[in-house]
Automatic annotation (TrEMBL):
<dbReference type="InterPro" id="IPR050228">
    <property type="entry name" value="Carboxylesterase_BioH"/>
</dbReference>
<dbReference type="InterPro" id="IPR000073">
    <property type="entry name" value="AB_hydrolase_1"/>
</dbReference>
<dbReference type="Pfam" id="PF00561">
    <property type="entry name" value="Abhydrolase_1"/>
</dbReference>
<protein>
    <submittedName>
        <fullName>Pimeloyl-ACP methyl ester carboxylesterase</fullName>
    </submittedName>
</protein>
<dbReference type="InterPro" id="IPR029058">
    <property type="entry name" value="AB_hydrolase_fold"/>
</dbReference>
<feature type="domain" description="AB hydrolase-1">
    <location>
        <begin position="55"/>
        <end position="321"/>
    </location>
</feature>
Length: 349
């Protein structure tokens, strides 16, 4: 909570510092943000990197509708090695702010996947690169696995983090119960006992109340809300107070739109076969998208290459909680595959 209070008090100062910190002055650098037309809707993207010819990292954010461009300062060191693209999905962030509810239409996973593919195709033309690295986080990992399975030709690899996974053994329920007991969260425990272990029977109000209590139990690692999202949002030089209001409005709107699909996602989309390398970099103490269920899902995956890596002392939103380790894993595990494919392509051509 102290991080949040400090962020509110020193908002303007932190914004000025981050604006200076984010400046890119290298000769071949790129720092662009714009609305682009995707399926007849203005959708917002940002493109940043110290060398626009470096491999592209395309982020698919979670939420639903939790735009990740607020985290740009946390990923500043990554921009030496990658060109990073953030995309505010339909119903999210600045895209929602531009279009509002009336023009946002129905939000579905299929629409988000199709729009995401269109954005990638735009980036291929804009940056002159045929492929990129796809990173899907939290709810974005569900969009990510669908994008990767439908259009493997667009990506060098899929990197899942905070990977949403099937949970037939209700591991998440047991971990939540243990967390509530350990933290003496009686309200959370009573809620969980009332709701039962099958999340498919919960309504959206139940689900939101559960997540609110669960986040309160996160103590020994960076808390996704009070240590990461809110401080980053308040200190972002790219986000006005109007943008922040739109951020939350978009989350409320998109959560309602996607809730039923989210609860039954793996009833319809059990993606285990991929035609590209698959990596899962997961926080070692994540109880929001439990580490154990992500590992179980990983073991079912068939891919030409796959690796599971624990991000130490991290819970949910591991790449923002521990960006240095996450970058190290990208450079040592994913980038060699990218370079090898680029080399083979150049030799063939």
């Amino acid at each position: 909570m102290s991080n949040l209070i400090t962020s509110v008090i020193f908002r303007k100062r932190n914004q000025r510092q981050n604006e200076k910190f984010l400046q890119i002055s290298t000769p071949n650098g790129i720092d662009e943000e714009a609305f682009i037309q995707i399926n007849e809707q203005d959708q917002w993207i940002s493109i940043r990197g110290e060398d626009r010819n470096q491999p592209i990292l395309f982020f698919v954010h979670g939420g639903p509708a939790s735009s990740y461009s607020i985290f740009q300062p946390l990923l500043r060191s990554w921009e030496k090695y990658f060109t990073i693209v953030h995309w505010d999905q339909p119903g999210a962030g600045k895209t929602f702010g531009r279009n509002g509810i009336v023009d946002s239409e129905r939000i579905t996973f299929d629409r988000l996947v199709n729009d995401g593919i269109k954005v990638v195709e735009y980036l291929r033309e804009r940056l002159g690169q045929q492929k990129m690295i796809l990173i899907g986080s939290s709810v974005g990992s569900l969009i990510g696995i669908l994008m990767a399975s439908r259009r493997p030709d667009l990506f060098y690899a899929y990197v899942g983090t905070d990977q949403n996974s099937p949970d037939p053994n209700q591991i998440g329920y047991q971990l939540a119960k243990e967390a509530f007991i350990k933290s003496a969260n009686q309200k959370g425990l009573q809620l969980l006992n009332r709701l039962g272990s099958n999340k498919k029977d919960w309504n959206q109000q139940d689900y939101d109340a559960f997540n609110k209590q669960l986040v309160k139990t996160i103590k020994d690692v960076p808390n996704m809300i009070t240590d990461l999202i809110l401080p980053s949002m308040l200190s972002s030089p790219k986000h006005t107070l109007r943008d922040i209001i739109d951020y939350f409005k978009g989350m409320n709107y998109s959560s309602a739109q996607l809730f039923e699909e989210l609860m039954h996602f793996y009833d319809h989309h059990m993606i285990i076969s991929f035609e590209l390398p698959v990596f899962i970099f997961h926080g070692d103490t994540d109880i929001v998208t439990p580490t154990a269920t992500a590992k179980e899902y990983f073991h079912t995956i068939n891919a030409p290459h796959k690796e599971f890596v624990l991000i130490r002392q991290a819970g949910h939103l591991a790449c923002f909680a521990r960006p240095d380790q996450f970058l190290k894993e990208l450079l040592s595990r994913v980038l060699p595959i990218v370079k090898s494919e680029i080399k083979a392509y150049n030799q063939f051509c």
